[in-house]
Amino acid sequence: MRVIIVDDEQHVRTSIKSLVDWEKHGISEIDEAENGMEAIEIINKRKPSIIITDMVMPYKNGVQLLEWVEDHCQDSRIIVISGYNDFELVRSTIKHGVIDYLLKPIDQQQLIDTIEQAIIKYNKSLDERNELVEKNRKVVKLSSIYKDKLLSQHLTQEHNQYDQLLKELGHEYPLLHNIKHTSLAIIDVALLNKQIRHDYNWNNELLTFSVRNICNEILNNGKKGIVFQNLNSPNEIAIILWNDKYRGEAILQEINQVLEKLLYTKLYIGFSPGTPYMTRLAESYEKAKIALLNNNLLDKDNFINSYTQNEIKRYQSLNFAAYSDDLKYALKSSNPNRIKCLLDKWYDYLKQLYPITLGQLKMWLHEFSVIKMRWLQELSVKNDLVYETTLNEIELYEMLDRNGNLDLSLLIQTVAKDLKELSVYYCEQIVQSTNVIHQIARYIEINYEKNLSLQELSDEFLLNKEHISRKFKQIFNETFINYLNRIRIEKAKLLLENPNIKIIDIAFMVGYQDEKYFSRVFKKIEGKSPKDYRALHTISNML
């Protein structure tokens, strides 16, 4: 939760900040402004939950600020702190829905009580909004599902069943009977940023419904077009605009303006203008999809991209693969400084790129996912190679700022966090596998007489056999088979001191099925045959 304190006197702002335990009330960020004009700029960007403002300030005064907030930031709760006990000022604040009008000097307890009241009202307004949206969603859900299914089918393949579409939807959308042109736009709700998702309690269905509802209002409930959810791609909202192929982009601009006012962000839209009739929706959809993917995520002004004949372009790769090998070795060595250094180099490379499109970012996400899976296969010691940590796939919205643009610093932070968790996972596996290798060594010492193999150990301890072989060499400075032979020969030496046991029986007792092979291994390790070893140690024992 955010707060902004607006007052032209620094000591007043400092005093207000010091009087309240903000963290206790769930407020983590506090902004300051010296006047109404500066406050508007900050409020526009930061969307605070609570606004604490003076009334008499230069440039834009408190009354002007309250008027602006009422039009542009209706969810924010307002507290006025003023040195003027003026009836007109008080009346203005009441008119604009102010929580309370506090007089200077500020009473600490009164300020705390008022802030608590503001927080309650802010949370209540959010709950009421979400509850209203949820009620509306339930009312229209059943009727809209069939419509969504019907229209979604027309996006994936060319249909010659326009008559059926007209029959099913013509009564709800009478203008369908006279359509000559259609335009198609698609919106990807997956690009809504983290703050909005938090405000909606991470309820993606509710959020999608809200965006859809806003679009439907702008389309005047079917008089300008149809909005529906593309069931083939659940994060997509599709908009069919009819007849006026020249005003389509203006309608989409209006949708984004309302989204910015209500959700404090714009959404990227791909637009395919002017296709004759509705039988070519699939073609329009493909063009709108290309246009959406070509949206420049670094452009702070343009969120709508219209398809043109030259729209299919080849954009430069984000080039993460160039750093992947070095990053893998940094992960293996658990070297956070090296990881940071490599990500800084990649960040410097990214800063030189313009544009960076949605398509590029999605391609990079796929590339990063493939690289991570390859790393996991190389680093994992599990037989099934399953990544058993709580790491989640990186989501697009994690890299977008409050206004919906790509923030390269957020991208680097997100990747750094993901790599850190991957490095921790790898280190845990190494520690675990080292302990397991010692357990395997103990298992061999106990079960040396069995027909042991790397595959049997792999099945027993759920580690891949290549990893067992490699770790044995690292920890014991000898191969698995040499370790096993050494244990067996040590046991055989003890048995050979008993002259009553046949050498062929000793071979079987320590795990060898072939006496000749046993003798060769024994001589290789001890420098003499089992028979010679027995003769020597029998004489020694007699002496």
UniProtKB/TrEMBL annotation:
Annotated transmembrane regions: none
Gene Ontology molecular functions: DNA-binding transcription factor activity; sequence-specific DNA binding
Gene Ontology BP, a term: phosphorelay signal transduction system
InterPro entries the record matches: CheY-like_superfamily, Homeodomain-like_sf, HTH_AraC, HTH_AraC-typ_CS, Sig_transdc_resp-reg_receiver, Tscrpt_reg_AraC-type_HTH
Modified residues (4-aspartylphosphate): 54
Keywords per UniProt: DNA-binding, Phosphoprotein, Transcription, Transcription regulation
Segments forming domain HTH araC/xylS-type: 438-536
Name of protein: Response regulator
